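# nightly structure sweep
# worker-07 picked up a monomer target from the shared queue
# config: single-sequence mode, recycle default, output format = structure tokens
# input follows
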Amino acid sequence: MPTESQNPDRALVLIQYIEAEIRPAFEALGFVCHTLSEGNWPFLFAERIEDARQPTVLGYGHGDVIRGLADGWDEGLSPWQMIERDGRWYGRGVADNKGQHSINIGAIRAVLETRGKLGFNAKYLIEMGEERISPGLRELALAHEELFRSDVLLASDGPRLSAERPTVFLGSRGAISFDVWIDARKGGHHSGNWGGLLSDPAIQLAHALASISGPTGQIRIPEWRPNSIPDNVRRVLADCEIESGADGPKIDADWGEPGLTFAEKVFAWCSFAILAFEAGNPKTPVGAIPPRAWARCQLRFVVGIDAQDILPALRRHLDSHGFSHVQIAQSSDEIFRATRLDPEHPWVSWAVDSMARTTGKKPAVLPNLGASLPNDIFSEILQLPTVWVPHSYPGCSQHAPNEHLPLTIAREGLALMAGLYWDLGEPGVPGAR
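# output follows
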């Protein structure tokens, strides 16, 4: 199903995914389903309450996907047809996120078929706008706090640390996207007649952007830099080694904040990126000084950064460096906020122990994902400890052509999630009544 949430023409497909695909899957497992909406965005809430004395676990997934980008896929592959090739499933959403919540639903089914019951209470929320920064989800959580009330969030999204190593992450970096631009004048002017007399907004904007970050990626705005990395975060990241892998790009060792490990750069520090830069007509350049230059930028930030001060801090920085003529504006009303559960929380130890017993491997524990998720809605509004168990890997081509999921990860994901769901019905669950 082409559930592209950025494409207005797919609005009916978003509803179809919930009603025709996910609702029947949950109802077949004895869940009661409710279709909810907030604004123009549909949500499915499913619950199976077995015993009020047992722990209640909230699951989460999103059925929307990034645009298919069909022209960029390898020959014989398609974003809208699931194809198995060389031990991988290819198709848009197999990694982000349809494949991941399908694995979790399959694991729930395995426990029910074996035990005859779950042994805990299960709730599950599927949204259809995560790729649009989850519009309406915050309002939905505020309006239905009692409906969503649970003891823990156990969900799956994002990549593992590596394809081979089961991983738990406990939150996510925040993300804010914003535009930076200069409107110098109306219309372009001949570069021979006016070059040297008229300011070039592209050159000016390049200098303004260069003042934000050093030549090897160090952030120069103090308010965008954490004061320190907590000891418990350093401790768990010391066991997490990031490698490029066969499908990933070569890591640039000298990029980013000096003195940090690769894991600390991604999971414990902030990163600034210029996502797009435009001046003149890039496809057909002409000999004219452009009237305007524009860039779309993004900051990924960790706990400790004041999200409300990110753009004001940028404004102060630009003004103090002589760039008061540079304009800035947030590019979306929504931002992902930074969250991080204490790696020593009882739910973390419980999940890691369960996964280790199932797989015979030592799981990696990440204090937060390097990317961004609407985790603050669960951790701050619903006040839940948040434990994420991803079923993907960094080289899965998520958000790009040829998105794929290795079958080895899918199989291991089914096993470890069945183990987690099984152990929820056994003694030793944190805070069990």
